[in-house]
Amino acid sequence: RVAITAGKIEEFKLFLEEYLADIPIENAIEKIICFGPNLMGPNILINNIERYDRPIIWPGSDSTESDVSCLWDYESSVIRGFDLATSSGPLCEEPMAAVAFVLEEWTGTLKCELAETAATGSPIAGQIVSAVKEGCRAAFLRQPCRLMIAMYKCEIQASAEVLGRVYAVLGKRQGRVQNEELKEGSGTFIIAAVLPVAQSLGFAEEVRKKTSGFAMPQLVFSHWETLTEDPFWVPTTEEELAHFGDVGDSGNLAHDYMMSARKRKGLSTDEQIVVSGEKQRTLKKNKKEKSTDCDSALIPLL
């Protein structure tokens, strides 16, 4: 349990100010509605609605009353929709991280008298939750999307004769060597590297097999890392089409990770079952060709 002091709150607010510097909202720190998911995640919901001055979330801050009283009654439904959207993102149905959503406008025909029913499980509350959830997911997809992958810290002890084989296995699995040093008094090298968790299945066994048991890897969880590739990237310019082809023959690592996760969870994917269908032959045609070959082979015997 960590004690929250005023100094730590101010330090956290300074960190958020640097993080939210690119958002064109004056005093965005004081307009934060909540964090998510579960009201304590790495995502932020910011209020930028005119005439809606909600209470400030920071302890010890002065807050003013809202001019749009009915919006305050519906805020719990808005927060719930934001929480659902950030706990299950549109890419892989995994939690979002480091995403800020801004509420720009509130429009509707609902009367303030109906606001009292929003907290009692009425259909109005559910509709608001669903609308906010889908709105956040759609807004997320309109911006450049990136995947975050879990990374292992890998420490390998190997002799000089098998260093090349160890590097080959790491490169094959998108690993990166961070440091290499020789252990004093021996001919053993200690290699420090990072390896994606998604590529770690069978890694230790492959290293021992390639090095005949002269290398011993140890894997420990290290951090989360953002992939630089856009999972929805496709070649568009003439140079990209000339270099990668019409379908991006070189492959997209982020797209492959996304499709693998969606396929594992039973979600829809863009995988094509039939490729170049005009080049395939039907079974009936194949049987006909086989029977013709058999008849031609029997002709000399007759």
Structure description:
The structure is a single chain. The chain is globular, with a radius of gyration of 29 Å. The strands form two sheets. A four-stranded antiparallel beta sheet has the order 5-6-4-7, covered by helices on one side. A three-stranded mixed beta sheet has the order 1-2-3. The longest helix has 19 residues. It is an alpha+beta fold and 302 residues long. The C terminus is likely disordered. The protein is built from eight helices and seven strands; from the N terminus they run H-E-E-H-E-H-E-H-E-E-H-E-H-H-H.
Top keywords for this entry?
302 residues; alpha+beta; four-stranded antiparallel β-sheet; three-stranded mixed β-sheet; disordered C terminus
List the helices and strands and how they pair.
Elements: H1 6-19, E1 32-36, E2 43-47, H2 69-87, E3 100-103, H3 123-141, E4 148-159, H4 163-172, E5 176-182, E6 188-196, H5 203-210, E7 215-226, H6 238-244, H7 253-264, H8 283-298
Parallel strand pairs: 2-3
Antiparallel strand pairs: 1-2, 4-6, 4-7, 5-6
Helix pairs in contact: 2-3
